[in-house]
Design a protein that fits this description.
seven-stranded mixed sheet, 117 residues, 11 strands
Length: 117
């Protein structure tokens, strides 16, 4: 059974930092691990992704303030978020896709990030 477990969310003041972690289990040959977020009343959007080759993508809104990293051996992905803004408030979801099952993404249950002004 595939499970993605996020941790590290919480309440932080504007300008602060948080580090999100996600552990994937039951999934092999992971090609892409990513972070998405969904704010109330908005669509889920990509925050950052990293493939097995180390190529990264960031949403324009977080570029320069966030860093995604992976530990391939442990099937973990991290998102370091700095200089947080109230508009970063959202539920953050971990996402993973295996080379063995293209087009079949797996999702975590999400972790709430709230940035107060």
């Amino acid at each position: 059974q595939v499970q993605l477990a996020e941790s590290g969310g919480g309440l932080v003041q504007a300008g602060g930092s948080l580090r999100l972690s996600c552990a994937a289990s039951g999934l092999s040959a992971i090609e892409i691990m990513a972070w998405y977020r969904q704010a109330p009343g908005k669509q889920r959007e990509l925050v950052a992704s990293m493939n097995s080759g180390g190529n990264v993508k960031y949403a324009e809104s977080v570029k320069g303030r966030s860093t995604i990293s992976r530990d391939g051996a442990l099937n973990m992905v991290y998102l370091q978020m700095d200089s947080l803004k109230p508009e970063d408030t959202a539920v953050y979801y971990c996402n993973a896709e295996s080379r063995l099952a293209r087009g079949r993404p797996y999702w975590g249950q999400g972790t709430q990030v709230t940035v107060s002004s």
